[in-house]
Amino acid sequence: MDIGNLFGQYWPFMALVLWFGYKWWNSRRVVAMLPELKLKGATLVDVRSAGEFAHGNAPGTINIPLQELGSRLSEIPKTAPVVVCCASGTRSGMARFLLKKNGYQNVYNIGTWSKFLG
């Protein structure tokens, strides 16, 4: 079997595996850093919808839905770390990008909100 042909045929699957592997690794890294980030006064932001947040949330998190984040940046201090979460890690990834673009230096994506509970 030709490696080039194999890669050409399965690269989308391999890219997907790599993406999920990265999300898993990064999430574990942020979970390990969480106690230190909390000591530094981290703001914990859940970017799920208000309805999702009402059905379950982690203590200490504030709810700013992703679609409102740009207009509510003043609620998040730039002087301390920010840890974002959502249902799967996708919206919080977008939130991290938006915060970094707006001058926030220490922004971390923990992935799913339930990781704050562990």
If you had to describe this structure to a student in words, what would you say it looks like?
The chain has 118 residues and is α/β, with parallel strands linked by helices. It is built from four helices and four strands. A four-stranded parallel beta sheet has the order 2-1-3-4. Strand 1, helix 2 and strand 2 form a beta-alpha-beta unit. The mean pLDDT is 91.
Q: Give the low-confidence spans.
A: none
General shape: elongated
How many DSSP E strands? Answer: 4
Largest sheet: 4 strands, parallel
Mean pLDDT: 91
The tally of helices reads 4
What's this model, at a glance?
The protein has 118 residues and is an alpha/beta fold. The chain has helices spanning 3-39, 50-55, 66-69, 90-101; strands at residues 43-46, 61-63, 82-86, 107-112. The mean pLDDT is 91.
Layout of secondary structure:
Layout: H1 3-39, E1 43-46, H2 50-55, E2 61-63, H3 66-69, E3 82-86, H4 90-101, E4 107-112
Parallel strand pairs: 1-2, 1-3, 3-4
